[in-house]
Amino acid sequence: MNQIYQNLPPNINQYTPTPDASALEIVGLIKKSGKITGYQLSNGMKVTKAQGVELAKQNKIRGVAVAVNQGTEYLRALPDPAHGTNLSNLPSISE
């Protein structure tokens, strides 16, 4: 296991995908009234939060894990010190 992931608490992510070769990246956030409602992927496709979670579970999105907060699944960026990855740093598109 990568050294970066060894330092995380074991329960921080519900599911950490192993992206397949064709996996896409999240390049933008879709927001409505300041809340994330979806994601723009590196191929230009826009998906809802729920669709993004399902794609991540199918290993189709790289650089994210599925976490749960108060029973709701969401995507969170995996730590990547080389790129300073954080989904909240991505550009936003208003809905």
Explain how this protein is built.
- The protein has 95 residues and is of the alpha+beta class.
- It has one domain.
- Helices cover 14% and strands 34% of the residues.
- The chain is built from two helices and six strands, in the order αβββαβββ.
- It has helices at 3-6, 49-57, and strands spanning 26-32, 35-41, 46-48, 64-69, 72-77, 92-94.
- The protein has a four-stranded mixed beta sheet with strand order 3-2-1-6. Strands 4-5 form a two-stranded antiparallel ribbon.
- The protein starts with a helix and ends with a strand.
Give a summary of the structure in a few sentences.
The chain is an alpha+beta fold. Helix content is 14%, strand content 34%. It has helices spanning 3-6, 49-57; strands at residues 26-32, 35-41, 46-48, 64-69, 72-77, 92-94.
Binned strand content: 25-35%
Find the structural class using helix and strand composition: alpha+beta
Gross morphology is globular
Helix content: 10-25%
Largest sheet: 4 strands, mixed
Key features of this structure:
four-stranded mixed sheet; alpha+beta; single chain; 2 helices; two-stranded antiparallel sheet; 95 residues
Write the layout of secondary structure elements.
Layout: H1 3-6, E1 26-32, E2 35-41, E3 46-48, H2 49-57, E4 64-69, E5 72-77, E6 92-94
